[in-house]
Structure formats: C-alpha cells, structure tokens
Amino acid sequence: MRPFLKPIYWSQKPTLSHCNNLINHCLSFNSIKFAQTIHAQLIKFGFSGTTFLGNRFVDLYLKVGSFHDVSKVFEEINDKNVISWNIRLNGLLKFGHFKKACSLFDEMPEKDVVSWNSMISGCGLLGFWDHGLEVFKQMQNFGVRPTMQVFSEMHVKDLISWNTLIMGLAHNGRAVETLELFKELLREGLALDRITLSGILLACRCGGFVDVGMSIFSSMEEEFGVTPRDEHYACVIDMLCHAGKFKEAFDTLETMPFEPSFLVWKSLALATMTYTNLNITETIAKKMIEQKPQSSLPYSVLNHAYEMSGKWEGIIRVKKAMKQRLKKTVGCSWIGTKKHVFMFEADRLQHKGGKDIYLILELLTWELEENSSIHVELEIEGAEG
C-alpha cells in the first residue's frame, strides 16, 4: 500500500506543503478514485474551501477527467481568484461545454492574459471561429492592446493562436501587421492551414497588396500544401476586382477546378457593382439565383446595374421577379412578461387574446391623445383571438 494511504500517515494534520505533494502524487497516478480518496482526507482536516487547494483540486479533477468533481470543488471555493476562474473555464472548454464556458467567461469578475487566451483557443478548438473573432474584438474594445500582449505572453503558441490573431488583424484592416505576423509564423516553421491563408489573402485584399496576394495564392498548394477552396478564390476575386483588375478576376474564375459556389459569385457580384457590362452582371446574377433562389442579393445587384444603365424596363422585370419568387420576412417584435414571451407581427398577433390587447392599446391611445395632445393612429388589422 502506498504510504500516504496508510492510516498512520494521517495521524496528524498535514501541512500545506504536504497537501501540495499529495496532489502532485495524484497527478502522477492519473486516477479519479485515488484523487477522491486524498481529497476526502484533506477535507477531514479542514482544508475544504481554501483558495489554493481548491484551485489545485479543480485542476487535478480536470486532468484526471472528472467533470462532476471539477464543478463541485469550484463552487466550494470560498474566495475565488482569477486562477480559479481560469481553471474552471479551461475545464468547460476541455469537456466541450461551449455555452457554459461562454456564460462563465461573461461572469468572470476579472480577466487576465490566460483568460482571453483560453477562450480564443477554445473557440478555435471547438470550431466556433466566428465567436472567437468576436472575443478577439471584445478584447480590443476593452483596451487589451493587450491583444498583442496576450499573444506574446502565451507560453505555447499553437496554430489556432496564430490563426486567431491573423484573422482578427485582417478583419480589422491591419494588413501590414498581419503580413508581418505571417513572416514570423513562417520563421517558426509551423505547418499552415486553409484558415491561415484565408486571413493572409484577406489582409492583402484590405491593404491592396495584390501582387503579394497573388503570389501567395499561386503557391498555396506547392509551397504550403493547402489546396485553394471557395473562400480563397472568393477573396482573390474580390481583391482583383477592388484593384480594377476585372479581366484577371474573370480569368481566375475560369481556372477554378470546381463549380464556383454562391460565396464566389457573391464576391464577384459585390465587387463588380460599378462594372458597366450588363451581360456579365446578368450572368453572375443568374448563377446566384440558380444556387440560392431565395436570396435577394442577385436581384439587388441586377436592380443596381439596370439603374446605372438607365434600363428602366429591366428594373420593372426585377421587381416583378422579386415579388413572385421571394417571400418577404414579416417584421416583428417581442415583449417578455412574467416568464412569457409574446411575438407581435406586422399583420397579426401570435398569441391568444389578440383582440383584447389591441382594444387596450386603443384605450391607451385615447388617453395619450386626451392628456398629451399626441395624435396616434392605430390600425387594427387581422387580430387573431
């Protein structure tokens, strides 16, 4: 039997140093049962709820894979510090509880470099890239120039960390910084992926670095082992069009080894809205309608092109087609009261008592008109009881 499991070992209260050593032993054995046994003994000696040991046990249970114990011990810590919150956050992300991790992150009374890094890396690992970018922007809004500081202070910079920073800088139009970071990443020797190169191409598009962007795009497969996908073609076409290189953009489109997706056509459509060749605009719009019949974007592009060319009969055709093919989303609003949410649409009421509510609104309107001389017209249409 291991000495620290014998009754004689527990004949007197252990010191904090002994407790720390015990937890280290638990980590080496990687056993949930063993960890729970040691934890129970330390609770008997009054160590329950202390910040230091609480943090150690949260970390211990996280590493041995006991999520239930992680949650329980965290709640028992009397004076939680930023380390406590960070360990708990990492636990939630490790076990894939993304929504709970987001809630905990929002609740944190204090965030440090580790907090931001954990959340951004977690978003990347779990595939929530959009949310990761939102966290990145939030970090900037909080004055965390700390953005670069967070990155520079990370002990281990994996590709997810690099990608997050690259995408964040690129989306904020900081092209030069993005390209400098790209050079640093290449020096590190990490294998790049499609997300890395999407961020770099976006930076080239924002900064107008067409030659650099085309050089990277043309060498993606050979130099970086990444096959260009929809998002890469869309970004390159957008970059070329914004630089006025429409011929090169269409040439790139024609060399695509697969059928262009809606994303590619969308980039081309938006970038060529000032392009006066109606035949090309109509071709682009037709392709978009074929792929997404319910999208209003191709009709808007056509409408704009016909307006620019003074083709009023074309505008009439577009508006007629929109009316026939597109289902307009009805405007609505919500009111919450006593744990119930009621939805009001422009043409009807989506719950019982509709007529009564409109009657009350009419009475309130009369009161406003009488007391404040405010004239409000209220139409009662299609109220459903």
Provide structural commentary.
With 385 residues, the protein is mostly helical. Among the domains are: 156-221, no CATH class; 273-328, no CATH class; 330-385, no CATH class. 66% of the residues lie in helices and 3% in strands. The protein contains 21 helices and two strands. Strands 1-2 form a two-stranded antiparallel ribbon. A hairpin with a 2-residue loop joins strand 1 and strand 2. Helix 19 (297-309) runs antiparallel to helix 20 (312-325). The radius of gyration is 30 Å and the shape is flat.
Q: What's the quick description here?
A:
Helix content is 66%, strand content 3%. The protein has 385 residues and is mainly alpha-helical.
Topology:
Elements: H1 16-29, H2 32-44, H3 51-64, H4 67-76, H5 82-94, H6 98-107, H7 113-125, H8 129-141, H9 146-153, H10 159-171, H11 175-188, H12 194-207, H13 210-218, H14 220-224, H15 230-242, H16 246-254, H17 262-271, H18 278-291, H19 297-309, H20 312-325, E1 332-337, E2 340-345, H21 354-372
Antiparallel strand pairs: 1-2
Helix pairs in contact: 1-2, 1-3, 3-4, 3-5, 4-5, 5-6, 5-7, 6-7, 7-8, 7-9, 8-10, 10-11, 10-12, 11-12, 12-13, 12-15, 13-15, 15-16, 15-17, 17-18, 18-19, 19-20
InterPro entries: E_motif, PPR_At4g14850-like_plant, PPR_rpt, TPR-like_helical_dom_sf
Protein name: Pentatricopeptide repeat-containing protein
PPR repeats: 81-111, 112-146, 158-192
